[in-house]
Every structure is written in C-alpha cells, then in structure tokens.
Amino acid sequence: AKRSAAGGFLFFEPAMHERALQALSLQSDLRDAVRQGDFTICYQPIFDTHTRAVTGVEALIRWTHVERGPVPPDVFIPIAERMGLIGTIDRWVRESAIAQLLVWQQQFPALKIRLNVNVSALNLRDQSFLTNLEAIAQTSGFDLSDLQIEITEGLLLADSPATERLLVAMRKRGVKIALDDFGTGFSSLSYIDRYPIDTIKIDRTFVTRMLLQTRTMSILRNVISLAKDLDLDVVAEGVENEAQYEALAAMGCSHVQGYLFCKPLPAPALAAVLACPVMP
Ligand code: C2E
Ligand code: CA
Ligand code: CA
Ligand code: CA
User: Fold this and answer.
1) Are 77 and 86 in contact (CB under 8 A)?
2) pLDDT tens-place string over residues 164-213
3) pLDDT at residue 14 above 70?
4) 54 φ, ψ to 5°?
5) Distance from the CA of 154 to the center of ligand 4, in angstroms?
6) Do the Cβ atoms of 80 and 86 come closer than 8 Å?
7) What is the model's pTM?
8) 235, β-bridge pairs
9) Whether the CB of 81 sits within 6 Å of ligand 1
10) Distance between CA atoms of 156 and 145, rounded to whole angstroms?
11) What does the angle CA 109 – CA 116 – CA 87 come to, to the nearest 5 degrees?
12) Long-range contacts, 23-30 (Cβ 8 Å, 24+)
C-alpha cells in the first residue's frame, strides 16, 4: 500500500475543514442570537446546609438554537468571550435576573434571598461594570446588597490592579463576591488572598469524587476549614445524592447546591419553589 505524506494530509483535511466550518457557523449563529435576544435564564436555588432554607438563586443562561437544539453555556460562553460578545451577554443576564428578583420580592414579601450571577473575568477590567449596576439600582430600586457576582475563570483573571479596585469598590456598595469553580484554576489561593471575596464555590468535580477518594475528602475538609477561618461562606456545587450532602454537612460546609435539591428551573417553575423556600 502506498502512503504519502500528501495522502495523509488529504485524508485529514476534509474533517478539519468541516470542523472549521462548523465553528464559523456557530460563531455567526451566536452573533445572531445576541442580536435577536434568543437567550433565556434558568434559576437554581442555593440552600443553607443547617437551616435548609433557600438563601439564594443562581442565574444560568440558556440558548436553544432552532436547528441545533440546546447549546450548553460551557460551549458558547468561551466562544462569546473570544468574540467579544460576553459583555453584552452577561449584562443582559444581569439586568433580566435583577428584574426577575424584584418581581419575586414583590410576590413573596417575606423572602430573603440573594441573586447570584456569573460574570466573566473579562468584564471586570474597568469600573463600567459598577457604573452599570449603580444605574440599575437607581432606576429600579434594586438593593445592590441582594446581589452576588460569581467570578468565573474562563479566561484567567489577570493580575490586574484595575480588577482589584473594582472589586473593592463593588464590595463597598454591598455587592457580594464569590469565586466560582474553586480549586480548578491555577491560582485559587492567591485570589482569596488578594481579592475581597465573600464566598467560595467548590467545584462539582470535588463533590463527585469525595466519596470515592479519601484524598478528595481531605482536600474538601481543609478547604471548608480554611473558609471558616477566613470567615467566608462555602457553597458545594453539584450535590447529587444524600451521602454527599451528609458528608458535606458533617464537614461544616455552609451551603449546598445541586440536582439532589433542585435543578435549574425557568422562572415560573422556580416561583413554586420560592413559595415554600426550604430543602425538599
Ligand atoms: P457554573 O457557574 O459552575 O454552574 C454550575 C453548572 O452545574 C450549571 O451548568 C448547572 O446547571 C450545573 N449543575 C448544577 N447542579 C448540578 C448537579 O447536581 N449535577 C450536575 N451534573 N450539574 C449540576 P450550566 O448551566 O450548563 O452552566 C455551565 C457553566 O456556564 C457555568 O458553570 C458557568 O461557568 C457558565 N455560565 C452559565 N451562565 C452564565 C452566564 O450568564 N454568564 C457567564 N459568564 N457564564 C455562565
Ligand atoms: Ca456559577
Ligand atoms: Ca461553579
Ligand atoms: Ca463552571
């Protein structure tokens, strides 16, 4: 059999070409989706481990494309970051979710919950993020201390004095700050050392492994004790079974979130949860 380098190249080229075309069309579909406002938001409750009360809801973006079907945010958010669309997207989520929380606060006057929104670190490089929040608070009457931003490390949080200044200024205005996916980034520890953090969210991968690997259990126990020492809240993400919940509660993890308690739901379905805001 003859095999030339050129033949090998030709063999692989169509597949690569195909993939490049798909990536291009996803990009242009995403641009259209942003222009047309084709996104929705689901909300997932966060519970206090001990009181079992809902203490917050996390807004999670959803995109259902007419032909592709649902496109997961893990797929399109990194593309949006590269395309420079993430500012527009995160801002839309933030404004819509704040409007929704204001509705729920009217509907359930006794409700005391916070709104968590995910923010790409790319959007935290200047003060315009805070200017926008202050404008929203001003016109809507929204209390900025009801907001927590979850900083996702999709693109590495640069060693940035501007980001540090912004976070400090936001915290002065009452906005809470959470470090998302804690333990998966390069420098999670240096972030809690440098930035004014209120909450760490332990990545789901640790929760998934903790009952299978004693080492993971040790890591979790120590992260939770570190959080307590620093007076931070700690949310365990992706809790899927009772055994995980029991172990986390025993370790003193202050908050939990996951399919065991509630999946992310569209606003009307979440209202039913908020009518009786405790762990099922
Ligand atoms: P994340 O912020 O770490 O969000 C948690 C993800 O885990 C969500 O996936 C949620 O649906 C899922 N999840 C929650 N509980 C469980 C569980 O018990 N088991 C399992 N297997 N999964 C669980 P989702 O909604 O697909 O979002 C993926 C990621 O996309 C988010 O991870 C976040 O980093 C990003 N993202 C979502 N919405 C936004 C947004 O509005 N802006 C930005 N910048 N990023 C967003
Ligand atoms: Ca998050
Ligand atoms: Ca997370
Ligand atoms: Ca994540």
Assistant:
1) yes
2) 899 999 999 999 999 998 988 766 788 888 889 999 999 999 999 999 99
3) no
4) -70, 125
5) 8
6) yes
7) 0.93
8) 201, 255
9) no
10) 26
11) 125
12) 26/71, 26/75, 26/76, 26/79, 27/79, 27/83, 29/65, 29/68, 30/63, 30/76, 30/79, 30/80, 30/83, 30/85
ipTM, interface predicted TM-score of the complex: 0.98
| Each residue's pLDDT tens digit, 38-77 | 999 999 999 999 999 999 999 999 999 999 999 999 999 9
Cβ 185 under 6 angstroms from ligand 1: no
Tokens of 250: 């025993």
Contact between 100 and 267 (Cβ < 8 Å): yes
Residue 26 CB neighbour total at 10 angstroms: 16
Question: What tokens were used for 64?
Answer: 């259902």
**Residue-wise pLDDT tens digits, 266-278:** 999 999 999 999 9
pLDDT class for 24, splitting at 50, 70, 90?
confident
Tally Cβ neighbours within 10 Å of residue 89: 22
Alpha carbon nearest to ligand 1 atom 10, residue: 264
Pocket test for ligand 1, best of 58, 64, 118 (most atoms within 8 A of CB): 118
Residue 83 Cα distances to 23, 34, 68, 71, 247, angstroms: 12, 12, 20, 17, 42
